[in-house]
Amino acid sequence: MRLASLAVAAAVVSLSGIGSITQTHAADALGEHTATISFRLSAADLGAGVSWGKGVLSFEGHDYPFRIRGGSGAAIGFSTMQATGTVYNLYRLQDVEGTYWSVQGEATIGAGKGGAVMENNNGIHIKFTSSSSGARLAFSVERLTLRLTPVAKAAIPAAQSAQGPGTQDRTAAPATH
Predict the structure, then answer these.
(1) Which positions carry the signal peptide feature in this UniProt record (predicted)?
(2) Who's near 47: CB < 8 A, 6+ residues apart?
């Protein structure tokens, strides 16, 4: 069921010509914009494939490096993708780690553009747009695991204590108006 909702969200993101009103509602459906992300991902496929790369998460005024690895099915070729995007519902740095799922397609011959919405088990959504180069044809479910680097992980206790005991608990349900 989650995969179906991700496919619908990805389709909404892909329909950029619909207009700003639809895009605003799509962003609202993903939750609260809490961070930004940029990453570079390489993919090599012959039927099933592997992906690897690295990036930076910008969260609460700090940049946190991460590594990303994963795989996909129903693809052939090689491409390198540069992506930037928005992170939704991230309130604790460690929640960004995990396995993200998305349904996406790619047809790159020389250069291409794309976008996707990914979600992990912590309820974190990442919506990104990308530019790719290479030669790859894919339409598949993609699984990407994001892990903060050891330097970024060392910052987690400091980030939590910086919130302090008087800071609002962002994991609580939002107030209704």
Answers:
(1) 1-26
(2) 73, 74, 75, 76
CA distances from 133 to 2, 10, 77, 94, 105 (A): 30, 21, 11, 31, 14
Residue pair 83/128 in contact by the 8 Å Cβ criterion: yes
Phi, psi of 168 (to 5 degrees): -60, 135
The helix, strand and coil proportions of the chain, stated in percent and rounded to the nearest 5, come to: 25, 55, 20
Alpha-carbon distance of 177 to 160, in angstroms, equals: 29
In 3D, which of 133, 122, 147 has the Cα closest to residue 52?
147
Question: What domains does the chain contain, in order, with CATH numbers?
Answer: 33-148 (2.40.128)
Q: For residues 172 and 156, what is the distance between their CA atoms, to the nearest angstrom? A: 20
Higher pLDDT, 19 or 31: 31
Please give the radius of gyration of the chain, using alpha carbons only, rounded to the nearest integer. Answer: 17
Predicted structure pTM score: 0.74
